[in-house]
Fold this protein.
Amino acid sequence: MKPKDNETFAYSKVTEETLRTLNNILGKENVLIDKETLERYSYDETPHGIHELPEVVVKPQKTEQVAEILKLADQKRIPVTFRGQGTGLSCGAVPIFGGLLISFERMNKIIEIDENNLMAVAEVGVILTDLRPEVEDRGLFYPADPGERTSSLGGNIATNAGGMNCVKYGKVRDYVLGLEVVIPSGKILQLGGKTVKRSSGYELMHLIIGSEGTLAAVTKVIIRLIKLPKLFITLYIPFRDMVGAFKSVSEILRNRITPTAIEFIEREVILETERKTGRRMPNHDAEAYLIIRLDGEDEPILFSEGEKISSICLENNALDILVADTKESQSKIWEIRSAFYENIVKNKDAEIIDTVIPPSSIPEFMTKVKSISTKYGVKILSYGHAGDGNIHIHPIRESLSKEEWYQKLPSVMDEIYKTSISFGGAISGEHGIGVSKKTYFQTEFDIEQIKLMKQIKMVFDPNNILNPGKIFD
Ligand SMILES: Cc1cc2nc3c(=O)[nH]c(=O)nc-3n(C[C@H](O)[C@H](O)[C@H](O)COP(=O)(O)OP(=O)(O)OC[C@H]3O[C@@H](n4cnc5c(N)ncnc54)[C@H](O)[C@@H]3O)c2cc1C
């Protein structure tokens, strides 16, 4: 996965002199070269992802320090990798060329909650678990909700993260109004700002969102907030068959009901969770499940939407409708949902595919995924954001020998990605390309588009020091 060498760009090593300059910029305590630290920052959460040590980890606290570091790295041609919280699932924050790793963990101030404009201004190291209560205490809501709430705003912006609320509220990009960024020359740019809309020239801010740390360092962000919905209810719906579950999803959306979240889970995922947690789930004989969250202001309207959803699902082979309307009962359901990844993937030989297809194609797509599983004799477990077509598919080694697994896996992955592209889908719905999806990324775009992307990269980062080897070589 790692390029063997870098023929075009010759990088320099971090020298004693560079370390002395970094110490002057940041103070010695924020320039770390001990083995334990380097190891801790050498990987992210990608299952069986690569580990590569940085040569030095630096922890700036101010944008001006980031600017000085980048200017230095650019002059000396030292590769730089940015890291938020390292919860990424595509090896994006892994420093594959060594060099300098900038961790934004100390840039973690919420600068302002602007209640008049419904906006927040924050440094990029702020994590969602800290942002949410601050915002919600003021009756406001930041709906972008990637499953891992210890992730940082910077990582969320760099990957254009998604999560469960996308059906109703969209992705991180939909909530970013302004960014402060630093480019390799050390220049600090203010992109966008506290306006709700703009039509002034190229929107550079949107190029940075989703660029996975390859164009600029993001240091500050202005995000849009909305009013915190008054009421939430959650429906847990077991189905006799998978087709019924997916048919229900399209019918719900066609009936102009827009739930906050529509999550799909197949039976095997529930069984695996039960085995792992020792907790028995209701209706565990079902073939597939939907978990649907609704939010709103008005109880009768919310419950009437819940009833409409229930009758659609019952007409499509739902076995039961379980309604959770207290905060505690809903939290229990969503905690279980959030733990799927840990329960079925962690400490196993497993892969993660985060492909996205048009929502109405899910039933046909899933049938094809099942046939790929049968064709190769590789177990595949799936769950995901059915409402927006973003399914998480996990091929799992289970009873295969290591040799068989490594022999079959590339074909399985290749066929699943190609199938999703054939439905008009994309390689990644929310986790980004990083290193782990680079090979498949080429199949999504034609040569001209990739050429344009590479040219854009060179305009921002002519010496290719920012997160080299990510997205494309
Ligand atoms: C259990 C689990 C559940 C998850 N669920 C979801 C989900 O539902 N939806 C979803 O979208 N993701 C999900 N993720 C993936 C992950 O949480 C997101 O990709 C998240 O946005 C990464 O944030 P981070 O702070 O950990 O970034 P990191 O992993 O540290 O970095 C991610 C990328 O962003 C770049 N980067 C980080 N900070 C900056 C910066 N300041 N400037 C420029 N570039 C930067 C890095 O170089 C890297 O390329 C999940 C992960 C786990 C482990």
